[in-house]
Amino acid sequence: MKNKYLFLVTVAIPLIVLDQATKLIIVRTMDLHTIIPVIRNFFDIVHARNQGAAFGILRDSSIRLPFLISVSLLAVLILVALFRKLRPEQKLSAWGLSLVLSGAVGNLIDRVRLGEVIDFLSVHWYGLYWPAFNVADSAICIGVGMLVIDMIQEERRKKKA
Prior knowledge:
This protein is α+β, with helices and mostly antiparallel strands.
């Protein structure tokens, strides 16, 4: 990986733009709490807002917004520091960190701009609902999955050596 920072920007910026663009479309085309069924009893497009962290944690706390913004900023700094330490052969980790960073920045933009995060993807099985999420959340989850896979592969390489 010749220029890993170019890679980071090339992955992160389009994902952040996609995240913000999809949220803007939802805000401009759907009233809050509107539901559009896509796959019956499985997937809907919704217009939801999350004032807390994952699963609405801290949504009623008076320190919620400054705390979540501070934690997000700290996470971004840590992710950049981790990215900086990557070795050239750690391509999967580079992807994973780029995705997690993209998602963290996407949701941070919402928190700073709106004081809450816009969610619009709703997966459920009949009446059993997973909390609504967005492109940024998806990037974070996929990125974390890639990091876990890379850590497992790294352990296997160490054991063989």
